[in-house]
Amino acid sequence: MTAHRHDHELVLDNVRIALQGTTLLALDAHIAPGEVLSVMGPSGSGKSTLLAFVAGFLAPGFTASGRVLLNGREITGLPAERRGIGLLFQDPLLFPHLSVAGNLRFGLPRAARDRAARVEAALDAVGLAGYGERDPATLSGGQQSRVALMRLLLCEPRAVLLDEPFSTLDTALRQEIRELVFGRLREAGLPSLLVTHDREDAEAAGGRILTLA
Question: Is 198 exposed, middle or buried (0-12, 13-18, 19+ CB in 10 A)?
């Protein structure tokens, strides 16, 4: 399955994240098509809250200012579901009541005539051909991560946010899944924002690295 390349751009303009009036981070960034911008910092530095702001939701107690622009259009005031942003978390968050194929179909338009073919192509692309009817709980951690990635790509986001998505994987598998994820994001031309504690994750992304205090 070859990703459709769209060359989207994500801009964070004068973004400020604060907790109860205390500024945690300030950031200006232009993320080019296919680029992964990595933000590193300790717990409490505002990394995950930054992602929440870009995605369209903030936890109580936090405030944010600044603008988020996607392809030159400001999306700061839009609800999360209208922003066109995909997320990958530590947990693949597969739907337990759906099969592997059902999870992948979730992101596809119901009226699409080629849904079955696209699901099969997605599974084949990550070495999971024939796994469509499996229960997600029977998959290994790496297999679940692959399904989560392909589900995200089938949703055709215009930008991607990654919140420590490799932290639960063992060392060898971590390298494999990192290469898969970052390769697919570059291929699709998606601007991506990664927050992580792990310098190896940030370096593997191949883009700029910002370190928070």
Answer: middle
Q: Which amino acid is at 99?
A: S
pLDDT digits (tens, 9 = 90+) for 46-61: 899 999 999 999 888 8
DSSP tag of 6: -
More confident of the two residues 66 and 20? 66
The bridge status of strand 159-163 relative to strand 192-196 is: parallel
What pLDDT, on a 0 to 100 scale, did the predictor assign at position 107? 79
Q: What is the pTM of this model?
A: 0.92
Give the pLDDT band (50/70/90) at residue 93.
Answer: very high
Cα separation, 204 vs 39, in Å, equals 13
Taking a C-beta distance cutoff of 8 angstroms, is the pair 71, 9 a contact? Answer: yes
Please state the domain extents for the chain: 10-211
Region 159-186: what's the mean pLDDT?
A: 93
Q: Where are the alpha helices (DSSP H) in 63-198?
A: 100-105, 115-125, 141-154, 171-188
- Residue type for position 194: L
What is the bridge-based pairing of β-strands 10-19 and 73-74? Answer: unpaired
Q: CA–CA separation, 160 vs 156, rounded Å?
A: 10
In CATH, which of 3.10.450.50, 3.30.470.20, 3.40.50.300, 3.40.50.920 is domain 10-211? Answer: 3.40.50.300
pLDDT value at position 3? 54
How far is the C-alpha of 201 from the C-alpha of 213, rounded, in Å? 18
Residue 199 CA, chain-centre distance (Å), reads: 18
